[in-house]
Write a structure and sequence with these properties.
Elements: E1 28-30, E2 34-37, E3 42-51, E4 56-66, E5 71-76, E6 80-82, E7 85-93, E8 101-111, E9 122-129, E10 137-144, E11 153-159, E12 165-174, E13 180-190, E14 195-200, E15 208-217, E16 227-232
Length: 233
């Protein structure tokens, strides 16, 4: 098992949820959970929680699994003072995940003083992490660079995220019959909610080409839409 950045230091009872001597229901009830995996490799959870007993301090634990049920990470939140009814929104940092793959997560509350599980497990099944959904980087009207006789592209991008991204811009050149003939690339730092530009150098023969442009982040995952521009060299 790979342990996340928020590593759990608490042990769970071997029989799962520890109930009171009267075998009553767990005191904390977790509502329906919305789980989203973001392109910066963070897992966002949002849900309502109800504490039926006295206020207590808990951590929310999330067990991340792949579509085969194999455990990938155990993630713990910071301590939360649990009152009665309120909405919880938590983000966990995950390791690099495969793009466009299915995952599930088990979510439950652990009391910090006792280490016991104080809620039923809520399972979010088969949510998808696909970086092409909700593009982080927007490609803005690239064009053939004047004065470049070998097919260079001047491209502008807008980063919609609230964080900067280190990425690579790829330009795949296709000839008139659709065959890929050249791949250019350029490394670029996308500033937070800002416009960035770069030049992709190319070395191709005169003619007409369609060029597919897209962006990957430094982890090798796509973070932009596919943009096609036709140029004549």
């Amino acid at each position: 098992m790979i342990i996340g950045l928020f590593a759990s230091t608490m042990l769970l009872a071997s029989n799962g949820i520890i109930l009171s001597s009267a075998q009553s229901a767990p005191p904390i009830v977790l509502g329906q959970i919305s789980a989203t995996l973001l392109v910066n490799n963070s897992l966002s959870l949002e849900f309502n929680a109800t504490n039926t007993l006295t206020p207590t301090v808990v951590v929310i634990q999330a067990d991340l699994q792949n579509s085969s049920g194999y455990a990938l990470q155990v993630l713990d939140s910071q301590p939360i003072f649990m009152l009665t009814n309120f909405t919880i929104q938590i983000s966990f940092v995950t390791f690099e995940l495969n793009p466009c793959s299915a995952y599930s997560v088990n979510v439950y509350a652990i009391e910090t003083d006792t280490g016991r599980t104080v809620s039923e497990k809520q399972v979010v099944q088969e949510f998808i992490h696909c970086a092409f959904e909700g593009h982080t980087i927007v490609v803005i009207a690239p064009f053939s660079m004047s004065g470049c006789s070998t097919g260079c592209i001047n491209a502008t991008f807008y980063n919609q995220a609230n964080y900067s991204i280190s990425g690579i811009v790829f330009a795949v050149y296709h000839n008139v019959v659709g065959q890929p003939v050249y791949v250019g690339d350029a490394r670029i730092e996308f500033a937070t909610r800002n416009v960035s530009s770069t030049i992709i150098m190319a070395h191709i023969s005169p003619g007409q080409y369609s060029v597919n442009l897209f962006v990957w982040n430094s982890g090798g995952f796509p973070v932009s839409q596919l943009y096609t521009v036709v140029i004549t060299v």
